[in-house]
Specification:
9 strands; 206 residues; alpha/beta; single chain; five-stranded parallel sheet
Length: 206
Amino acid sequence: MTAPYRWLALAAGTMIGRRHPFVLCYHGVGSIPPDGDPHGLFIGRELFKRHLDVIAGRGYRVVSVGELWRLVQGGSDADRQGAITFDDALVRTSREAIPALLERGMGCSMFVATGLMGQPHPDLDGEMIMTGPEVVELAAAGVEIGAHSVDHPHLNRLQYRDVLDQLRRSRAVLEDLLGKPVTSMAYPYGEANEQCAVHRKGVRAD
């Protein structure tokens, strides 16, 4: 089926009550002055909660992106299944968004740039990135932790060996920190090319 017809089929299914799987990707959740968010990466906590309530009202179950991927790849019925992800592991997001999800019994995934843990976010003045112990605590609460490179570079601008280093080291650091396999990742800035896909074995990319 060609792409236009696939989308037509999806739209028709939605009209008759079918609920297709989805992934919503966020960065920051919480109150922040406009001049502190030049790239528009934040939404307010109350708006985020309304998002969750709409999703729940549509009858969706919200899981980690890794679980959703396994359902889809395994051929299981993924209708009414959705995933929510957060890039950059911001402290404010962990405090403002994660409790709202857990209160509703919803899962999610947090993607961590390991070389920036415990440091200020390079693009958000005054916003801190979670420390290693905070990431461990988040995982213990049931949040899936995924890789997000080491230094959050534009991977598609790097040499092949440097892409490999960013992807391999970030995964290895998180696996050592958490004591378990890390099977999900998100590319910084959502940018990827052929070089970025070379280390996908065993890892699902958001």
